[in-house]
Structure formats: structure tokens, C-alpha cells
Amino acid sequence: MTLHRTRIKICGITSPDAAWCAVEAGADALGFVFAPASPRFIEPDAAWDIASALPPFITTVGLFVNPSLETLDTAREDFPFDIIQLHGNEPEPLVRDAGPDVIKAVRFDPATIESELLKWSRIAEITALLIDGSSGGQGTTFDWNALAQVADSSDHPLIIAGGLDPQNVAQAVRTVRPYAVDVSSGVESEPGVKDPRKLADFCAAVRRADAQE
Q: Residue 167 CB: number of other CB atoms within 10 A?
């Protein structure tokens, strides 16, 4: 039997030490936040200094909130990240124009989640949908069972975010069997500061959940 391997994204990387701790713990992707209002904000050129020293096969993700196409193009010049994550209320035309390889974040609402999955499934430029419990970075969980019931409505792989930490991520993985999980505040000692032990424990918990399939 081939076990499902849940991918792991560590978001809000702001230092080389945090990046390397995440990679050594087992992260598949690192997220860099280009939303100025976030405590995890980093300038694209500083993010490139970190990412350019990473080993191969680590995916880099640039996170934006309601950007213009000009903002995206300018950031790409300073940091040629692999995937764009749009974490705001971006309209469909902008999401299409930002592609390919877009992760579109959707805030979980039990009344609208199925229609949201169907809506964004129409856009081929999206590579995955990220389901969050808040507008991002606030550590808010949501009803994973409710998402599992409608997950098949999405033509895109699903990423779970929001309130995940080393203690609860295994349950999220077992409940939804998502393509990936995304964590930020749940592996921090304070906002914007990643904790090496929490990073290691988080990644280990995901691997254990995969083995329990």
C-alpha cells in the first residue's frame, strides 16, 4: 500500500535560521509574506537572500493580500519565487492574470465553502486552494469535518491552514487527508519568530498521521 504524503508549508519565514530549521525539520515549502500589515512581513529582496541559499527541491511561496499586478511583477523581479499565494479578496480576473501556479486562500464558512470550492475550480491557473480559519496569520481553526464532507467539490488540491500546531495537526490530516498543511503562528515563540522545537514537532506529527492511513 502506498501511503499518502502530506506536504508541509512553513509560512512567515523572516530569517535564514528559521528557513534552515524548517527545511531540516522536513518542510517542503517556505512562505514569505509580502503583506506590509503582517508582523511576518519581509521585503522581496531580503526574502531572495534567504531563498537563494536553500537546498534544491524546496518550493518558495510569495504571499500577497489584494495586490495589483504591478506589485506582483515588481516583487518577482526581486525574488523569483515558485508560487504566488493570494490571501485576500482578489477578483477572479486578477487571479487568472497572476497565474500560473497560484495558491488561492479561501476563508472557511460552513454556509459557503462548497460554493467557494466550485467557484475557484473553474480557474485553471490555480494550483491549490488553501482553506483558512481566518483572513490569515491569526491562528484560528475551523471545522475540519465539515470541510472533509465537501472536499470532493474541489478540482484543485486542498491545503489546510489556520490554528494548526504540533498538538492538533495530526487530527487535521487524518480528518481531511489534504494535499498539504500550512502553519505560521503555531510554530512560533512570538509573532514572526519560529521555534525550532515546534517546527520539528509539527513536521513529525504530520509524518505520524500519514503513517496511520
A: 12
pLDDT average, residue stretch 86-109 = 96
132 catalytic residue (yes or no): yes
For the question of whether the overall pTM of this predicted structure is more than 0.90, the answer is yes
Domain annotation for the chain: domains and CATH numbers = 7-211 (3.20.20.70)
Residue-wise burial string across 150-162, b where 16 or more C-beta atoms lie within 10 A, e elsewhere = ebeebebbbbbbb
**In the annotation, is 21 catalytic?**
no
Burial class from Cβ neighbours inside 10 Å (0-12, 13-18, 19+) for residue 98 reads buried
Do 204 and 6 touch, CB atoms closer than 8 A? no
Catalytic-role residue among 21, 132, 182, 203: 132
Distances (CA, A) of 82 to 21, 31, 151: 20, 10, 25
